[in-house]
Amino acid sequence: MSDDEHVRDFWLSSGHHLLDHDEHGRLIVTDEFLKVYLARPEVMPPDDACIVERAVYQKLARTPRAAVVPAEIRDIADRDARENWQFLVSFRDALLAAPTLEAAYLKLVRAPKVAVPPLFLAQLVHVIARNMLDGEADPLILRAAELLFRPQRLTIKDGIMLLADEELVDGTNVTDHSSPLVAVFGDAKARNLDVMTADNADHYFDHSDAHHMVMDFRFGQRARTAFAEVIERWVRHMHGLAVKVEAIERLERADWQWFAGLDQEGTRIGNALWAGDEPPEQGRERIVALFSLTFDDAGDMLDRVKGHPTYLILGMTTNRIIRVKPQNLVTGLPIAEKRA
């Protein structure tokens, strides 16, 4: 049996199998991939859709790269449908204008104003991360990478920090605590979740698109170091730069020269700390994890921060939701202009 036959697939829902690759392994858009967006329920015309909307849909269903002029969308009767088509066509045009999906993502998130719906960005990160991790055999790395495109809900029970997919655990209180995870997350849907352990981690490959495995994200646990490795690989894949990322317990004030929030809350908390203020809404308590990022080659860094680490702050909302923004690792690192 060849080595390729031992490689196990994952995240089929990303659409990775529908894409081509260039000589550097980056993703090239295909008609088959574009047609997936046309199958989304918010895009498919409802029974009462106007004739213009139906015509646009039928044209793109036949030829997903076909030009769509502004007048075609303007003449769609339903306001919500017009908005959906404007976003979709604009997003499609951005994908087609770039040589690869990775290049399209970089251009979209580096724009002065990111005009792409978060759902589309998350889907793009999903398939890029799938490409970045192609051939990965460690299920914990893959589960940690889900943080890049799947919001998580955090719960601490008896000192254990657990992360579960937010879509599967909505935080609704229930009285039936017959399941340990229901007792922890307060949600009847938690019965379908499993805490990832060394014994069951390999089952991840059988259900990778279900996102039902829970991680112990405490400091010192493998899940947190796995996420640090995911960050390293994301920076290398998107920037072509080698970095080392380590989970840390605290910030060192003497090295506090640059930081990047890994999510909106981490950015808010970091901004307050940078200004010498106390973060609002118990901000310090909402820090989920801290990381230290260093560049392998100091020449890749801005001169004024050489010799100092970049601190990465992962926070959560007041209702314990973590929404990682991987674009912050594109736009927020102290990369020298010649390497950006």
Structure characterization notes:
By secondary structure, this protein is an alpha+beta fold. It is built from eleven helices and eleven strands. The chain has three domains: 3-132, no CATH class; 139-216, no CATH class; 222-331, no CATH class. Residues 173-177 have low confidence and may be disordered.
Topology:
Layout (H helix, E strand, L loop, with lengths): L19 E2 L5 E2 L2 H8 L12 H12 L7 H5 L4 H19 L3 H10 L7 H15 L6 H7 L6 E6 L2 E6 L14 H6 L8 E2 L17 E4 L5 H18 L3 E6 L10 E3 L2 H11 L12 E9 L14 E6 L5 E2 L5 H4 L9
Parallel strand pairs: 5-6, 8-10
Antiparallel strand pairs: 1-2, 3-4, 3-11, 4-6, 7-9, 9-10
Helix pairs in contact: 4-5, 7-9
| Poorly predicted regions | 173-177
Query: How can the largest sheet be summarized?
Result: 5 strands, mixed
Strand content: 5-15%
Give the overall average pLDDT: 91
Order of strands across the biggest sheet?
5-6-4-3-11
Number of strands: 11
Short description:
This protein has 340 residues and is of the alpha+beta class. The chain contains eleven helices and eleven strands. It has three domains: 3-132, no CATH class; 139-216, no CATH class; 222-331, no CATH class.
List keywords for this structure.
alpha+beta; five-stranded mixed β-sheet; four-stranded mixed β-sheet; 34% helix; 14% strand
